[in-house]
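Anyone up for a design puzzle?
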């Protein structure tokens, strides 16, 4: 039997075919899950509608994660269509261009709040929305995506590094809160991958090259490799794993010099 057969999942953070969340959606669909996929705004709605033609009976809904009404609507619609929710994939992140381009000390108050709201707080809001549906099923699995810039300084990652540190702490606090309800909360810390979000990080090609030169596996990773790790955490294979930040980065995190 496929690892997610009979399960229903929510995927947030698909912008286009290069998105990590899209690779996870494809893998989850192939593993038998029925999916709700959200998009931010009509511009991306077109992309997501086209991509979703390859999925089995998907539900597509608009969601800006800073909008509480849209968030409530997503869970109402999932309740109506699927009547259950077994997993959530959170792949939304954003920081204003200036806050990634200027020295970190220049980070604006508004830019800090925006990066934190979209990239970290949204995991709390999504988990709260998912809670009643997951409780009804006797549990669930929540997964987010993070980067090593949370722990180490990558000088052009700036405010996003601080937001990822908050996100990883959020994973641990949510895991402690929701664990007694058999809801697991984990993150995958992915190596650098050329996506739309990555294009906003100055000098991204340089980061990729450093991984190729220095990571133990002497390469970067691709979205399908992140998706394979996600299948472990979302399925019953990962049933005893929670509050974990799983490094899927060709081993780069272990390297000092
Ligand atoms: P991506 O394809 O650009 O995905 C990021 C998604 O976040 C986009 O769909 C984006 O939509 C969405 N988003 C931004 N603001 C939003 C909002 N207010 N409401 C809802 N969605 C919003 O890039 P990705 O690399 O796959 O990123 C997915 C996750 O992986 C992110 O958390 C990222 O930090 C993380 N990650 C990426 C890498 C990497 O190297 N690529 C490495 C480690 C971790 P818009 O395009 O409309 O803004």
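Challenge accepted. My sequence:
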């Amino acid at each position: 039997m496929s690892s997610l057969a009979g399960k229903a999942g929510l995927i947030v953070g698909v912008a286009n075919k290069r998105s990590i969340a899209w690779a996870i959606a494809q893998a989850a669909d192939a593993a038998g899950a029925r999916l709700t996929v959200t998009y931010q705004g009509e511009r991306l709605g077109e992309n997501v509608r086209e991509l979703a033609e390859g999925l089995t009976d998907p539900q597509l809904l608009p969601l800006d994660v800073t909008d509480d009404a849209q968030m409530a609507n997503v869970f109402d619609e999932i309740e109506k269509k699927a009547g259950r929710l077994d997993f959530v994939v959170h792949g939304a992140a954003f920081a204003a261009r200036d806050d990634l381009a200027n020295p970190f000390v220049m980070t604006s108050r508004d830019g800090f709040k925006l990066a934190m709201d979209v990239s970290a707080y949204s995991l709390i809001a999504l988990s709260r929305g998912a809670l009643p549906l997951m409780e009804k099923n006797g549990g669930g699995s929540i997964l987010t995506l993070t980067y090593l810039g949370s722990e180490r300084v990558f000088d052009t990652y700036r405010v996003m590094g601080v937001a990822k540190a908050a996100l990883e702490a959020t994973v641990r606090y949510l895991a402690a809160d929701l664990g007694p309800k058999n809801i697991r909360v984990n993150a995958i810390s992915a190596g650098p991958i050329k996506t739309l979000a990555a294009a906003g990080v100055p000098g991204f090609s340089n980061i990729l090259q450093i991984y190729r030169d220095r990571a133990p596996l002497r390469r970067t990773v691709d979205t399908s490799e992140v998706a394979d790790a996600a299948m472990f955490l979302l399925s019953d294979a990962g049933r005893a794993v929670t509050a974990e930040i799983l490094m899927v980065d060709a081993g780069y995190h272990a390297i000092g010099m």
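A detail worth pointing out: The radius of gyration is 17 Å.
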